[in-house]
Structure prediction request, 995 residues.
Amino acid sequence: MPHRTRWRRRQIARGRPGSGGRVCYGPRPMSGQESKAKYKDTVNLPETPFPMRGDLATREPEILKKWDESKLYERIQTARAGAPLFVLHDGPPYSNGHIHYGHILNKILKDIVVKSRTMAGFRTPYVPGWDTHGLPIEQAVERDLGPKRKGMSAAEIRAACRDYAMKYVAIQREEFKRLGVLGDWDQPYLTLDKTYEGAIVRALATFARGGYFYRGKKPVQWCPRDRTALATSEIEYQDISLPSVYVRMPLVEDAQAAWRGKLDPRLEGRRLSLVIWTTTPWTLPSNLAIVAHPTFTYVAFPNRNDAGEYLIVARELAESVATAIGGADLAAAIEITPEQMKTLEGARYQHPFLPRPSITSSGDLDFRLWFADYVTADAGTGLVHTAPGHGPDDYKTGMTIGLPPYAPIDDGARYVPGIALETGARRVELAGKSTEEANPIIVEHLAATGFLLNPPTDNVRTSAAHCWRCKGPIVHRATPQWFIAMDHEGLRQRSLDAIRATKWVPPWGEERIHAMIDNRPDWVLSRQRLWGTPIPAFYCGECRVEHASADTMDHIAEIFDREGADAWWNREVIDLVPPGTKCTGCNAGPDKFEREKDIVDVWFESGVSWLAMARRDTDGKDYGDIDLYLEGSDQHRGWFHSSLLAAMGVKNAAPYHQVITHGFVLDENGIPYSKSSIAKAKSEGKKTSYIEPETVIAKSGTEMFRLWVGATEFRTDITYSQKILDGLGEWYRKLRNTARFLLGNLAADFDPNVHDRKLVTLGIDRYLLARLDDVVARARKAYEAYELHVVHRLLVELVTVDVSALYSDVAKDRLYSDPIDAPSRRAAQVVLYECLRAIATLAAPILCFTAEDIWTHMPKRAGDPDSVHLTAFPEVAAEGASAPIIADFAILLAWRERVTKALEPFRAQKNKSVDAAVTLHPAAAERDVLVQYEAELADLFIVSDVTISSAGDSTVEVAAHTGPRCERCWKHFDTLAADPGDVCERCAAALARRK
RNA sequence: CCGCCCUUAGCUCAGUAGCAGAGCACUUGGCUGAUAACCGAGAGACGGAGGUGCGAUUCCUCCCGGGCGGACCA
Prediction:
């Protein structure tokens, strides 16, 4: 708590012996104090209703209500109608659950950017969005529905999903608004909007028209529990233990074997076995080939358990294989050169438990040795078990040779009927078994039949792909899916070029996304789910030909624009296709068509949000020309990635000009500050805790979150802790109190329409205005470069050093004691006003509530709007104009420090600094400057008299001023005014003015 | 395993190849006409080890710690 230290300190002070009566809570002793306060009622003390404490938890909702009722966002847009456009496009958060700290960071950052761009003169619309389709919502709904789900139609389940999504849209909308984020909250974009669903299909139509869209059976990452394909962005890796098996695959020495007689003579008459290694024994029933590397050297060494057999592995790996299989006589190993290996190309081997000769439709291509250069020598045997239905590289090899993507498992990753292990008389049924159940069965079978070379209990720890939603292991499985071809019409290369043309902040993001696009496989668009937008394709019920024409998709897009994607399930097929549509294969009518059951990957949906925005062209303004995406750095593989590909396909340009990323929110121990990460760290025995944002907000409001975001360098990971918030709270109070002081000296009698910079003559006043211009110019630049923490630093320095410690202290004399309308006092007020205005406006994007509060209490110029967020940042006078005064004051302020220091012992003797008369002994070089400002030095140093000597050792001499003291302003003079006799001339005049 | 980023005082941030700065926190003095305020003073830091420089917090290499991302690892 911010106040605790303060209180403790006071209590300690009270209890300390000898601390005397100075710290006490009772009435102060009256004697002797009265004369001090004699003229108190005649000085112009600050006065303002602006409270010392923010009381943000109650004050913020009031301000929000005012903004809401006065339609502030709409008024800002109207006010900027003719201004240049700056579009920050909102990345849609997923609409389930309450918001967390990552959302808070992201949304506040965006809001600060939007507000600062607005105040820099741009029209900056902000349309928030939500990602509302997809698996997590569907799963949550299924869980909530329980057994009821069985009897429900697709339309009914989709309706439940919609309700669920919209519930959280409503919740998150309120939570985001509570952060002070201004935007078009009444008309957000939602991926479940009818027109958005139309845009998705329209984008697909463009891909189809361009020939990128195809259906293929190839291995995709498949989650057997969620029963759907997954994109690379939906995969995470976890360390798990997998069985490790070395399996011998005996070469068949039949009449056609080309290698006979071509190998080392010592191998003549020996039986040879290829040795493969795998950690996924369950894929062995799908093995169709073994692949070797074209340039590796291999060796054959005797099998210890079978005198007549030699085992073949890569030479590089022979030793590790020997170790794994319990030892081998490598001294007897015989080399097989790459050239000799070549003669083995196409050599047949005997599959350990599939006795039949071939399962390919294309003839006799399976169970042979082939070559590929993706084989590595860092693990395994250099001979790769290849199952084209269960791995991307395997698939590639299969395509080259003509092997099918054979994957005899169903949606739940269980073997289909007819799959069994058969070796001689030993037969083990696999049908119905899951891949995990199959692993030990297969290992046991291999061991029992002599094909396994290593102990059946061996396993390895490795990181393996898992589903990011259900966290379970996933499999590679070939199934028919819709894809976007990355290398059609140069899509990949054009995307890479577009990355180069985009500005990435911080710059390393460019390489990251470049490498990802460079390496990624074709985009799997199909999801075997309900809650989303259907893939708008059909199959002819007569001849099975696919129908995925662009024209048909455009037609469907129009229907979706009006009715939403529900039309896909609610309408007859004949009502979904353009009139006159016929099967291109057999000329059957659409009444014979069956519709595609899969939906579109949600990453494709959010990837076309820029298109949905462009279509929101209701007022003739192009929201689709987007300047900036601003998200967490994880979106390089997510939304930045999918948006880029979608935009390259649809309009052949990146959807953004600039992409900025922020880091993750970590706690003080460096653990990601999310509920799950913190819980995990806690379960591992680390000392940590998580406080819900709602709890913090209810107690202290959201302005501190905004300050946290504004003060922190967000491009790297950023730390959140209560301690940091408390520290920022201290600064916040300083800012608030300084503003309060400024307001107090302005509110009652200052009119900015009458009093302006023309009144300013004194050096200190000119210096402050110069400093102010400097800060304004730098802050504007910092906002432009999104360096919010720099803005924060500038504000801190301005407020603490220049305004509070220096200027307020120095100007108090004029403000309090001058006649109300004395030009010198007005000049000080002008300076205060300029400072206050600059502070309020520069702070407004960050401290949106407090700046508004200040603005409301401030005297206004004619034409000033009622909200600070409708104003612009201050303009800066010509650059460089302030250099001379800044240089002069560098010298004067150094002297001020010397004087203050020299006054320490003087003040320790119960004197005040105004009781002093000081003599300066400047070096010759500085003397002129001091003399130039001689008249105002006493006030600058807050003493009663300054003498400049001609000695030059840069020291300061302090003496008590011997003249009488003015009882009103407490400064000493050689003589006082005649009437009344105890005040100075200036104060006498001020008193006279009051009558 | 690979790649990228980060590491300056208790906290948040500056900064530079040449005595390391600010604000807050801390210790401490003062004021009581900004008072649950305000004005001073003090103490406190370049993650570690090498290297190249007359000189390194700054440039290079490696390591520790933290984060993010990638991976066909059969």
About this structure: Confidence is low (pLDDT under 50) at residues 1-34 of chain A.
